[in-house]
Specification:
The complex is a heterodimer. Chain A is α+β, with helices and mostly antiparallel strands. Chain A is 48% helix and 14% strand. In chain A, strands 1-2 form a two-stranded antiparallel ribbon. Chain B is mainly beta. Chain B is 15% helix and 47% strand. In chain B, strands 1-4-5-7-8-9-10-11-2-3-6 form an eleven-stranded antiparallel sheet, covered by helices on one side. In chain B, 28% of the residues are buried. Classes of the chains: A alpha+beta, B mainly beta.
């Protein structure tokens, strides 16, 4: 049980950091829509359009890393399986 | 001969008065470009968003810009930030209460310190700004750019005549002044909000 919990914690840690890094390593809050600036040619007005896609932020990273840390900490209180 | 001169003078006067008449510009943009932008400092990163539901009319006379009048309306529910949960909180009861306060408005009272260079008029717009049901008198430095005969070109129909009026401005408000979480969460969300506008009004000619 101890090893399984530590393995789950490790997988969660790697998956969270990997997902966050692969999606751009955004250091702000998670975004459900990504703002992009365009310019209207005639008026020269810079305006924002949104692309609907998810970008994980620090909140998701902190949640995943925190949860994996908690699982690992719990695993330390478990006794290893008795082989006898 | 005398009759002809009088008729000519009246025609000329009428033509002059017609050409100098103020034009009403509609700020419901057919291309959907118009938006109010807002930002405020917060924990981790500034909260920045837009409000695309801009409507209203401004009456503008290039020959007499000081006489400009009008009202700009922004639909509260059109405010968005990139994070969906934050958008939900922002429009909810504790912050803007969009359901009870569907509009954010600026009613222009007068333009002060008007100066014009080419087609650009700079001035300070005095008026009544209403947010979350609270109305305050504010002054906003603005620039009005009159683009004569540019309406058709902008909608890819050059045969359609008409003018455009670009309105730009930026100002700060204190959220407490408008009853938005007054004195609360100031360590997480700055009490000062920066609002920028860059919007265009159209006046097609029939």
């Amino acid at each position: 049980m101890k090893k399984i919990l530590q393995l789950i914690a490790l997988c969660l840690f790697v998956a969270t950091v990997g997902f966050w890094a692969a999606k751009g390593a955004h250091t702000g809050w998670s975004q459900n829509r990504v703002p992009m600036t365009k310019t209207d040619e005639i008026t020269d007005i810079a305006y924002t359009v949104y692309e609907d896609r998810y970008v994980p932020g620090i909140d998701l990273l902190a949640g995943g890393v925190g949860l994996s840390g908690a699982l690992f900490a719990i695993s330390l209180f478990l006794r290893p399986r008795n082989k006898n | 001969m005398k009759k002809l001169v009088i008729t000519s003078v009246i025609t000329l006067a009428l033509a002059t008065s017609l050409s100098a008449a103020p034009v009403s510009f509609d700020f419901k943009d057919p291309k959907g470009v118009n938006a109010l932008q807002f930002s405020l400092d917060s924990v981790l990163e500034p909260i920045a968003g837009t409000a695309g539901g801009v409507t209203g009319t401004v009456s503008f006379d290039p020959a007499n810009p000081a006489a400009t009048s009008g009202k700009i309306v922004v639909a509260t529910k059109s405010l968005v930030v990139p994070n969906a949960t934050m958008t939900e909180h922002m429009l909810g009861n504790n912050w803007l209460d969009a359901a009870a306060n569907p509009e954010i408005t600026f009613q222009l009272s007068k333009l002060e310190g008007v100066s014009t260079a080419g087609n650009v008029t700079s001035a300070t717009a005095s008026g009544k700004f209403t947010l979350k049901g609270v109305t305050k008198d504010i002054k906003v430095p603005v620039k009005l750019t009159h683009l004569a005969d540019a309406f058709g070109k902008r909608i890819n129909k050059p045969e359609v005549k008409g003018d455009l009026l670009v309105l730009r401005g930026e100002f700060m408000i204190q959220r407490a002044d408008f009853g938005i979480q007054a004195g609360k969460n100031e360590d997480k969300v700055n009490p000062e909000i920066k609002i920028s506008i860059a919007i265009v009004g159209s006046a097609p000619k029939a």
